[in-house]
Every structure is written in C-alpha cells, then in structure tokens.
Amino acid sequence: MIYENAILFACDGLVKTSHKLYFHYQQYPWHLLHPENNPDDCEHQRRVQRRILGQNLEISPSCHLSGNYILGIAPFASNYYHFITDLVDCLATGPKWPILLPENMPRHYVDFLHFCNFPTLFLPPKVYRVENLLIPPYNGWSVKKVVGIRQFILQKLPESLSSQPSRRIYISRKLVQKRHLRNEEEFWPYLEKYGFEKIYLENLSVVDQIQLIRNTSHLIAPHGSGLINLIFSSYHTKILEIRPTVSSGQFCYEQLFSNGWTHYQYLVPPKRAHFLMPIAELEQILRQWFGHL
Q1: 92 and which of 36, 37, 152, 219 could share a cystine (Cβ 3.0–4.6 Å)?
Q2: pTM attached to this predicted model
Q3: Structure confidence by residue, pLDDT tens digits, 46-97
Q4: Please, where are the H alpha helices in the chain?
Q5: Alpha-carbon distance 162 to 69, whole Å?
Q6: How far apart are CA 30 and CA 123, in angstroms?
Q7: What architecture does CATH give domain 162-290?
Q8: For the chain, percent helix, then strand, then coil, each to nearest 5?
Q9: What's phi and psi for 99, nearest 5 deg?
C-alpha cells in the first residue's frame, strides 16, 4: 500500500497515517479510531502497545520528504530473514523508488540493494512526514511469493547454477554464538567424511551466499536466518534444519519449503542446557542420503 503524507518515526519504522499505525512494515496494523477491532491478547497487541507507550505519537515531524519512497526501516530490518522475505519480496513487485533505511543497516544489505539498482536514503532517528510512502505488505509463504523472489533476484545474476549442483554445505553459527551447536567439534568429522564444507555466511556478501546455495546439493544447518538463502536453491536440494525447539521461528522454514522443495527434514535435539547436535540421528540421515561409506 502507498500512503500520502505518512508520519514516519525513523528510530524503528513506526508509521502513522490518518487513522492507523503500521509497525514492522504492515505486520502489525493498529486502528486508532476503532480500538475494539484491534487484537486484545496476543504478541501483536503487546508489541504495538509497548511501542505506543514508548514515544509520543503526536510529535510534529521535524523533516519533510518530498517524492516517493519505499519503507526499509523496521524493528527487524537488520535480520537477514526479514530483509529477504519482507523487503526484497516487496521490491520484486513494487516501483523502483528510493528505499528509506536506518543508519545502522548492514553494509552488505545496502550493497545488495545497489546491486539490484535501487537507490537508498539513510535516515537519522527523527520524525518525518513522507509525501508518498510504500509500506511493504506482510505476506505468508506461497508458491507465488517464492517464484516472485527467485525470479527477481536470479535474473540479475550471471548463470551460476550447475546442471548438477554438487556442493555439500554445513552452515556454522559459531561466529554469532546464538543457536550455535556446542558440540560442533564432535560431530564435524562425520560431516567431513561425507565431503561437507564448513561455511560461515558472515564472511560472504549476499550475492556470494546466493551463488553458493545455487550450487549446493546437500545442506545442514542450525535454525537461523542464513537458511533463507535456500529460496534460491534447486528444489531437489536435500536440507536438514536443526531446531532448538519444535516451533523455532514459528515454523517459518517448514512453511517456506512446503512450496516446492521435496527433500526437507528437521531434527529437534533433546532439551538440554546447551544446543547440541544429536549425533546418532545425524548419522542415520547421512546414511539415508548417501548410503554406507
């Protein structure tokens, strides 16, 4: 949706229109005149109410932005999963307007937007009145969305998909610590025996990550935003996600891979003090994939 004279709180991307608020793009809409229509007992309600209490919504805008813009500021704008699924999804179908970004947007995201020929404008955390603002919609996963994102990005890349993708990849989260499999040194020899490469996505540009995944035939990784790169993989890529809990990410990757990927599995380790790869189950899946060595 495109909104005229929208008030933008650039500290976190909250948008106020005539009678509504939008937070995290359009994921959390909130009606100001008819609060009885708003959710009253869910994370949506709690998140928006915390945000409303955090700042006076009647602050007069200090700056006016003339022209047309796409909102790229949101609470999770720096999360790679949301960058691809929310913002890039919008860019695939929207106009080629400048994208409003927070000053701390990761540099490799910005480089990728420039690679896609989108101009960007960085905003200090002030309050703005924007003449025309496109707020990315919030869409669940569907075949249409998957195909749209794939086509939008892959047509910009040089042909890089081998007719027979063959790389076997393990994505390590050791550099980021959160959801890092603590027994990596213990189970890595099993993966190495089957020809897996250990990859740290933090060391790669967005384009390099996509190129890597395009040539991957088998991928194992703990739950994390890097798995969103598989939207650009072959539909026949074998995927194993290691989840800390059954509902990690509100089943986001299960929903994604249900749209065409034929070899997606996940493991949930027994609950312990640390996040550990269940080695016996890993061995069983490796034998299913490759047979006995």
Answers
A1: 152
A2: 0.90
A3: 888 888 887 778 888 889 999 999 999 999 889 999 999 999 999 998 999 9
A4: 43-54, 80-82, 89-93, 107-115, 143-154, 184-193, 206-214, 252-257, 279-290
A5: 38
A6: 24
A7: 3-Layer(aba) Sandwich (3.40)
A8: 35, 25, 45
A9: -100, 125
